[in-house]
Amino acid sequence: MKYITKFAEGFMKLFQTGGDNFISWMTGIVPVVLMLLVAMNALIALLGEERVNRLAQISAKNPVSRYMILPFISAFMLGNPMAISMGRFMPEYYKPSYIASQMQFCHTSNGVFPHINPSELFVWMGIASGIKTLGLSQMDLAIRYLLVGLIMNFIGGWVTDLTTAWVCKQQGVTLSKTLD
């Protein structure tokens, strides 16, 4: 009977811990993401959805803007995970590529722009503390990480485009490369 009681207590503790974690999200990241969503939608309403769609369509035509510039601006202005939402303005064909580039940028920009992905700042700080211990510049590392990240965004987006084309052909699916 003692083991059943211990199991039941442990089982309930699991859900209590999950509930505590959920409440911490409700007072931490959820309001921030909600406010960013409100700000982004307000900005889109002020600019006009047609202009934002046109900007995304122009960005979609050029791989440099699609995989480097738009992900950078989105991440810098909105942070992770809100930066992903700018993909909604991309044509269907380019959405997977945009998301691939966007997620890579959110990780590789932490050293220079820690506000973009604060939840992973501990990874950057661990690496940077090792660099500091060696007597090397943390900012040099951050800039290199950012630049390599931008190049990898481009390559990752391009490879995702090729993969998307291959899967579409294999599955007999046609995705639009323009906004309809």
Can you describe what's shown?
The radius of gyration is 21 Å and the shape is globular. The mean pLDDT is 83. α3 packs across α4 (63-78) and α5 packs antiparallel against α7 (138-171). With 180 residues, it is an all-alpha fold. The longest helix has 34 residues, at 138-171. It has 7 helices and no strands. It has helices spanning 2-27, 29-47, 49-61, 63-78, 95-108, 121-133, 138-171. The termini are far apart. 22% of the residues are buried.
What is the 3D form?
A: globular
Instruction: List how many beta strands DSSP finds.
Output: 0
Radius of gyration: 21 Å
Helix and strand run: HHHHHHH
Helix percentage range: over 70%
Unreliable stretches (pLDDT < 50, length at least 5) are none
Major beta-sheet overview: none
Distance between the termini: 65 Å
In round numbers, the mean pLDDT is 83
Individual helix count: 7
Assign the structural class, choosing from mainly alpha, mainly beta, alpha/beta, alpha+beta, or little secondary structure.
Answer: mainly alpha
- The percent range for strand residues is under 5%
Protein name: PTS system, sorbitol (Glucitol) phosphotransferase enzyme IIC2
Pfam family, one: EII-GUT
Transmembrane segments: 22-47, 67-87, 142-168
InterPro entries: PTS_IID_sorb
Task: Fill in the keyword field for this structure.
mainly alpha; single chain; 180 residues; 75% helix; PTS_IID_sorb; transmembrane
Strand and helix layout:
Blueprint: H1 2-27, H2 29-47, H3 49-61, H4 63-78, H5 95-108, H6 121-133, H7 138-171
Helix pairs in contact: 2-3, 3-4, 4-5, 4-7, 5-7
InterPro entries: PTS_IID_sorb (IPR004699)
Pfam family, one: EII-GUT
Transmembrane segments: 22-47, 67-87, 142-168
